[in-house]
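Changelog-adjacent note: as of this version, every example in the card shows the full chain rather than a window. The one below runs 186 residues end to end.
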Amino acid sequence: MADEKKLDEANVEAEVENTEAEVEAKPAKEDKQEESKKDQVEKKIRKQIEKKQEKDSKFGIAALGEYLKEEHKWENYVFVVVALITLLLGCLIIEGSIEVKENFPVIGTHSTAFAWVLIGVSALGLLYALWPFFKPSFPELKKITWLTWPKFLANLARVFIFMIIFVALLYLYDAFISNIFVLIFS
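Full-length structure tokens:
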């Protein structure tokens, strides 16, 4: 991948040098036009290189690591683990797998209430920690175009008709095969 980047950079430099040589050979009037053409060529080449780099970086575990490093903080991962542990602890207290002694200070007499508070706090913690993962999906949901009501009903009818035919076929196959087994083994 590094070799490709070097090759792409060398191609950019060669293109720039070629365009510069062409610009120097032209008269002064055409310099401004050529300058803009040169800029256009450079922009095109830069865009091609960026597209290539984006394409290369989209694949592989390295890209996933880069995404997680840049987009999500490691604290969120720790927070998710802690929230899951406290959620599990609260559920175990409610279920009775973990008992809180009556003489334990503050929560001993109210262990069930403490467990529900623990579950609520851990659920809020999970929502807070997982929010950065789901936040980018909401703008994408706005781009969805839903079916119209008549198309939806037509598709729903097709699905139910298919299900009825499929169940009928399975019923007939079962009846046929069970009759064959009765004839063979009786």
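Structural remarks: The chain has three domains: 2-66, 72-138, 145-186.
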